[in-house]
Amino acid sequence: MNATSVRIVTLKIDDRELSAREDRTILEVARENQLDIPTLCHLDGLSSSGACRLCLVEITGIRRLLPACVTTVGEGMEVYTNTPRIQHYRKLILELLFSERNHVCSVCVSNGQCELQELARKLGVDHVHYPYLMPELPVDASNPRFVVDHNRCILCGRCTRACDEIEGAHTWDMRGRGIETRVITDFSDPWGASSTCTGCGKCVHVCPTGALSEKGRSVAEMVKHKHFMPYLTLMRKEQS
Amino acid sequence: MTKKITIKPISRIEGHGKITLHLNDEGEVDKALFHVTQVRGFEKICAGRPFYEMPSLTARICGICTVSHLMASAKACDALLAVRIPPAGGELRRLMNLAQIIQSHALSFFYLSSPDLLLGLDDEPQKRNVFELAKTHPQLIKDGIALRQFGQEVIQILGGKRIHPTWVVPGGVSEPLRLDQRDEILQRIPDALDCIQRTLTVKKRLLDQRREEARTFANFPSLFMSMVDDKGRLSYYDGHLRFMDATGKIIADNIEAEDYADWIGEAVEPWTYLKFPYYKPQGYPGGMYRVGPLARLNLIDYCGTPLADREWTEFRQIERGPTLSSFYYHYARLIEVLFCLERMQRLLDSPEILSKHVRAHAQVNALEGVGMVEAPRGTLIHHYEIDEEGLIQKANLVVATGHNNLAMNQGVLQVARHFIHGGKLEEGMLNRVEAVIRTFDPCLSCSTHAFGEMPLVVELYDAEGQKCDQLLRR
């Protein structure tokens, strides 16, 4: 978009008067101004999908809550990022994530390095009020270097976006509906049999939990490096 | 009229169990059963998981025997990788394993069993506990606390935390030892040595006063099994299995970990979840054997460290052949703590221990692996089968308390027959039945990989199966 055609709007986030380009999202503007909004599916360098709903915010005059990562700012907007109502919903979302699959941190490769775990700690999720479903999901270890453990997956879609938008391989996708949804490689083939996977490992490093990991990493050993994504996107754009 | 007595829960042991005693028409003990009544199914939980998660996964079986499971599991995983781990990785694992033996033995002896030994078995249970002991024997309890703390803190220094450290990994350990960490452990060893030597003096004085218990506490012929190293010395991490009969004759030796199933069978009884391993050549239940500190000190040719060897020589003079009374498990535990401290010092004195090369990396190279170590309570075996991708297909864990199961039952029967007559229940009798179990220091959470809570009850049943008396302890 041409810079000259973009308007600057003024808005209030948590009672702070701010101004921002009208094409920016509430999340971007909030973070630029050191206002923290929690996210799980969002990652700088990838497109936003509004999947996890953790960045929900309240906007005066709009009854439903809106995800800050895909809602652009508007003139005169009054946004609240941390009301009791939002806090309640955020904890509820995390509890639902924990109850849906098997997130036993103590024996997870990502223990201590996990975004889900860290967020739960930060938001004070000390109980899960729903029965754990504990589904018995498979682990696909067919790839010689990487492993996908569906028990740890929260369906944030970062792996699919990184693979599609940055690597350009689109090996990852989603299959199924609702609780049956799974991330898949190619046409739901074993990862090791994938003909499109380049083995770059970006999916592993953007994964917020222990769902994707490097093979052979022991419990609590999987450290992920995701901050290189924006640079990668930038460099690839410049070259093309 | 026959009766059945149940002791439930058995207190001051790791985990929860109960005992039933069946009396005949004359009120004499006919049958005694030690039950472990819950199951957790760890072997099932592990199925489908990547093998390299197994050390941390199986460590969660127990908060006391954590390190032992880490070691056995990591060794089984080394076998799957088919690697020789770097020497320093092995030395560091040995070091942590020694710390584990120290902390667990200190827990068993000082916190759980010493009230029986020092306060007598005829007192009320309210008076026989570690707090009462702190009043009457303050130095002993201080030493006990210090020793357990030492063991726990060495584990913490090495692995980052006292319980469930993730430092032990397939192929070695994840972090090398730093100089300051080594020095910290080294400078604390002399104090710990003082603690254990003071305790040994107290213990040896006690042995004379407890002759009746020594005579009746699971004092019977049985086989013994433990690992020994290639020179026949006391070893908790390296070596092979050795069996000895009650006369002291070595009946099987040099058994490698992967051949364990050729020698050890596992029987199942409907009244308990704890399996009954037995020595295969002699069948079930004839192939009863004991493991743990007593077995180890019976089986070795010598310890291999000066102070421990001196104590061991004295220990071997209790009987002409192997020491058969399980009462001496306590004594053996203390000698082992002394040995562990000496071994630790020796490991730390070697410059090799500071090497940065502590981990070997490899992919799956074998589809089956067995890891074996001596845990505080006896031999611990982890046996895994995986597919080509490294996912667990089958896991079998044979734990120390299981090996002792037949002997514990036999021990309960012996002590019950000696102390119970005419079908009458008295506190002192119950205490002795419990105390005999404590000599084995069973860990029931490990043994059944079991879950739940069960207090100790002794129930008395008549010939028609009617309950006529009950004692309950929580």
The N- to C-terminal Cα distance of chain A equals 18 Å
Given as residue ranges, the uncertain stretches of chain B (5+ residues, pLDDT < 50) are 449-455
Give a count of the beta strands of chain B, DSSP E runs of length 2 or more. Answer: 16
Low-confidence runs of at least 5 consecutive residues of chain A: none
Mean pLDDT of chain A: 94
Multimeric state = heterodimer
The general outline of chain B is globular
- What is the straight-line distance between the termini of chain B? 29 Å
Compact description:
The complex is a heterodimer of chains A (240) and B (474). Chain A has 240 residues and is an alpha+beta fold.
Description:
The complex is a heterodimer of chains A (240) and B (474). Chain A has 6 helices and 10 strands, in the order ββαβββααββαββαβα. Chain A is an alpha+beta fold and 240 residues long. Chain A has 2 domains: 3-82, Roll (Ubiquitin-like (UB roll)); 88-239, Alpha-Beta Plaits. Chain A has a 5-stranded mixed beta sheet with strand order 2-1-5-3-4, with helices on both faces. In chain A, strands 6-7-10 form a 3-stranded antiparallel beta sheet. In chain A, strands 8-9 form a two-stranded antiparallel sheet. In chain A, strand 8 and strand 9 (182-185) form a beta hairpin. Chain A is globular and about 55 Å long. Chain B is of the alpha+beta class and 474 residues long. Chain B has a domain at 3-38 and 402-473. Helix content of chain B is 43%, strand content 18%. Chain B is built from 16 helices and 16 strands. Chain B is globular and about 65 Å long. Chains A and B meet through loops of A and helix 2 of B.
Fill in the keyword field for this structure.
heterodimer; A: 240 residues; alpha+beta; Ubiquitin-like (UB roll); Alpha-Beta Plaits; five-stranded mixed sheet; three-stranded antiparallel sheet; 10 strands; B: 474 residues; four-stranded mixed sheet; 18% strand
Topology of helices and strands:
The complex is a heterodimer of chains A (240) and B (474).
Chain A: E1 8-13, E2 16-21, H1 26-32, E3 56-59, E4 66-67, E5 78-80, H2 84-100, H3 115-122, E6 139-140, E7 146-149, H4 158-167, E8 172-175, E9 182-185, H5 202-206, E10 212-214, H6 229-239
Parallel strand pairs in A: 1-5
Antiparallel strand pairs in A: 1-2, 3-4, 3-5, 6-7, 7-10, 8-9
Chain B: E1 3-8, E2 18-23, E3 29-35, H1 42-45, H2 54-59, H3 66-81, H4 87-119, H5 130-136, H6 138-159, E4 168-169, E5 172-173, H7 179-209, H8 211-216, E6 223-228, E7 240-244, E8 250-255, H9 260-263, E9 264-267, E10 276-279, E11 289-290, H10 293-299, H11 306-315, H12 329-349, E12 368-375, E13 378-386, E14 392-398, H13 400-403, H14 405-419, H15 427-440, H16 444-447, E15 456-461, E16 467-473
Parallel strand pairs in B: 1-16, 6-11
Antiparallel strand pairs in B: 1-2, 2-3, 4-5, 6-7, 7-8, 9-10, 12-13, 13-14, 15-16
